[in-house]
Amino acid sequence: MSSAAGARRDVDPTGEHVAHVAHVAHLAHLAQAAHGSPPDDAALLDSYSRAVVSVVERLAPAVVSLELRVRRGRHAGAAAGAGSGFLVTPDGYLLTNSHVVAGKDGGASLRVRTSSGAVSEGRLVGDDPATDLAVVQIDPTCLSAAPMREGDQAPRIAYVPLGQGARPRPGQVAIAIGNPLGFESTVSTGVVSALGRSLRGRGGRLIDDVLQHTAPLNPGNSGGPLLDAGGRLLGVNTAIIARSQGLGFAVSAETAAWVLSQLLATGRVRRCHLGIGARRRPLDRRLALAHGIGASAVEVQSVQPEGPAARAGLRDGDLVVAFAEAPVTSVDDLHRLLRDWQPGRVAPLVVLRRGQRQAVEITPREAPSPELASSTPG
Length: 378
Description:
six-stranded antiparallel barrel, Pdz3 Domain, disordered C terminus, 21 strands, seven-stranded antiparallel beta sheet, alpha+beta, Thrombin, subunit H
């Protein structure tokens, strides 16, 4: 759960750059002091501050606040939820957390306020509780051009592009921008603490490849961006641990980019399912040794009529130990394998039935709804 496998180990020249900038700033300060002139703030800014300030000036206008309000009934107009989000395209599409917009399906109105103070009704484009991500669209005419910066040829709409970042590394700077407790455009910084964490999503599935970081987060930061010192997206802030300090979590930029493409294309994330209800079951040590398998398997507890498992002949009590030649020791293992499997493609499945090993072929299907895909075991 805490693997950092696959992390890039590029040479990082920032150490020499930091020392150089600090030395130049120190010399500038001495020179100005010798001439009796006050020190120039720009000259005294160290490279860390310069990087953070640059990112905030460039991308804070892309961060928005979201507010859900009850439409009808006794509590009409009352707040039903709030959080942050950020524009990912210049034409009004933004990314946020699924739990931030969870009340939208219940009839609540979704209001989005931009950094300029403009308010737009938000349209929920797609929602994926399994990764705690959602896409919302707002009226692009309410977006104001960001302040012109050196090198800009024309006014531009600030947004955070996805898919341009390098693999994050523990120890690198992490910059969080959001609206904690209603305080808009709040900036906090820290470092990436660890990679490859896993969190349990709203539907019971594990969210994999989660970043742990130390940038302080509070309620209302959910859905805001976590950025590196170059302004590239590291992840989408999603959770904090209550009564703790320095423990924030963000869904990785890689996961966010994949979910965004799916939600923009179809309004949902396509996932396979087998049509079973299942649970993890520890195996007798002698049985595991006899078959050369792990210490646990996935026990089939129910089989959906006419589903993929029923068509493959699976029965209640079968123990799934492998899918597509990969070992299965838990429901989470099965979810991970099904996540990347193409619907309609035949897969080999190995089960233990009354202690005997049996190989069958199964054809996973697309789960009929996002809710089913995120709530059923398989």
